[in-house]
Amino acid sequence: MAAEKLTAEQLAEIERKYDPESAFRATGRSMAAVITTALVAMSVYHFYASGFALIQELTHRGIHLAFVLGLVFLLFSWRKSLSTEMAPAAWYRFDGVPVFDIILAMLGIVAAMYLPLLPSAALAQRVGNPSASDVFMGSALLLLTLEASRRSVGITLPLIAIGFIGFALFGPWMPGALKHGGASWAGLVNHLYMTNQGIYGIAIGVMAKYVFLFILFGVLATRIGLGQLFIDLAMVIAGRYAGGPAKVAIFSSAFMGTISGSSIANTVTTGALTIPAMKKVGYSSRFAAAVEATSSTGGQITPPILGAAAFIMVEYLEMPLRDILAAALFPALLHYFGIFIMVHLEAKRLGLRGLRAEELPKAWLVLRQNWMSIIPLAVLVYFILSGRTPDFAAVYGIIACVVVGFLNPLNRLTLRDFVTALASGARNTIAVGAAAATVGVVVGVVTLTGVGFRLGYVVVQTATDIGGFLSTVWLLDYFTVGQWALFVSLILIAFSCIIMGAGIPTTATYIILVAVAAPALSQLGVQPLVSHFFVFYYGVLADITPPVALAAYAAAGISGSNPFQTGNTAFRLGIAKALVPFVFVYSPSLLLVAEGFSWPAFFTTLAGAMLGIACIGAAFSGYILTKMSQAERWYLGLVGLLFVAPGLSTMAIGVAALSPVLYRQWLRRDPVVLAHPGP
Fold it and tell me: How many domains does the chain have?
């Protein structure tokens, strides 16, 4: 399918195909009206509850979960293949929705609201001693949560939750350090359902309090023209240079990442423009798709949205959001720097041109037409930096979006558009809400059984044993057992994050893995902030890591390239994201707000990381000033690793080792290619 011929409907179909969170059921008009009304009500409720009401925490979480479960069973079919077209009329369906799913939706609402509606005194007496009705409703909610998660995000996360439930029930039969006393079904339901350590825990609380509002803000900001402004500004900034459209993809995705926390949505939104433009100037379909996918995954690590993970960190680490965003800033910039280096070298190697003047928008015209759309983002950032709570900042950011939308004559927000945006914002939170409730099950088992510390002990012990062996090997004995243990632990955790992230959303991966990583890394002296960011970054990397590289596959659907090859290329382009977490583990100053921060350490680490990423990017590209041999590429890649290790001594060694390669490249440099006509 040629990218130039894709329509908006085809792009939406690509997003539904590769993003299970967007595979909504086709319904008739009556049911569509019911669903839209519920979605709008969900948005209105969350805006009111966060901005103007004082609602008890458990009640707020219960209402949010009731909306999520009710809408999941109406929006998602029990089998994905049934969601693509309207089901034929039958006695057991109402306007395209099976009656059984309607019953499940109502049961989900009842089960979610049963506990919050209990009198506080009665609830306090029954925690630890649940009644038969409590166990029944808790069991129903648990099963409905697992099924809702399966429908909306896939089978992997529910299977993980079931595995943890089995671990809790069959603790006495677990091997070695994992053995524990076990729990009865009533005791397990009590912990997962009647305390704030399970389904009604931090994960669903963060979704209800923060994430919903920020997703709604992103939808409204895009609708009033902020997304188009970002794309146009990226064209103005980077479009004229060699391989311009690919650089536009990087900048536009970085800008879009400030208001979008979804890799796939970002890929489809910006890729519809950038992928055809990249192909037009001479990039292959595979490379064009990979550039867009890799750039778009950066949206989840780009402030101020950061997906949902930033708000989870706020709750777990008890840090202000502005500190979390400050910590995320330079690692995100290094991610985009790594992609930029590879894109630039690829353009130079192929002799690709930039966009011509007539193909570029005029900067003054772009700013004159869309300057008002930047106001809501400025309001949001101002309140975050001033120390206000995230929900306060989001509420006023949403208000600013509405005001600007109704005042801006070029992107005027009509009442119909406003209602559609409210429905879209709520719809985009449904799947992640179901995933958060399921993650609550996993976290509840971790707190009930202490398995996080047990698994952490197993990881550290395994890494220590391997480190003990490596420290006896010639040349490797320069490092101590403790240093090898930390390095091996990081490798094991990184692979675990990538494997788990291949089948479940980034936020779910982050919450589950941090339960293991944080205890393990804390035993090795790693700060909590650093360990949280390490897990988060590797969870994001799964979106461009085959065999389940969803963002890369969505981009391949737009460009018409091979999905698996696109995923391999995207992983190569995103190699910086795989290296940066190791950099800030060994030099936390890169995160700006980590303990022990100093400006000399920060600048040394940043410079070393940039040089290392540039070397590794050149090694993968096979080109600096001319084509490199395989031996030169391997040598340059190893030199790049020296720069990534922090410290002036390693940087000096790296510069000395790099000099011969640069000298040879200068002697053999290619003639300057001023332009390439493109196909």
Answer: 1
